[in-house]
Each structure stands twice: as C-alpha cells, then as structure tokens.
Design brief:
The protein is mainly α. It has one domain. It has 3 helices and no strands. α1 packs antiparallel against α2 and α2 runs antiparallel to α3.
Amino acid sequence: MNETSMNDLQRKFADVSDLILSTRPGNRHRHLTKLHELVGDYSRKGVVVPLKLRQMQEDLTNEAIESRFNNMPV
C-alpha cells in the first residue's frame, strides 16, 4: 500500500473518530455504519485494523444492542 492510501485511511479514521466523540453518549451507535465501512476499507487494502478502531466498533456495537433493550416495554 502506498503512503497516500495509508494517509487517507488515517484521516478517515480521525474524521469518524471525531464525529463519534462529539456525539452525545447514547446516540453514538448511530455512526456504527461508518465504522463498519472504515474497517472494510482497511481490510480491502490489506492493512491491519488499528486496535483503537476495533475497540470503538465493539463499544458502539454494545451501545446499539443496549439501546434496543432500553426501549423495550416491561
């Protein structure tokens, strides 16, 4: 992979990360699709997905699951 492609991935990760961190907790999971796309970009380019990105994806997945249960009637 060339340096430009790597810089593009890093910039995209920074942008998505900033977006998520600027979103109120409880609503962050709405950006999960963007994270999935970014993980796919890393994989398609044959680059190891950064641990921070994997952790963020896991956290938002858990948040999405939790939000479904918070809205269930008892």
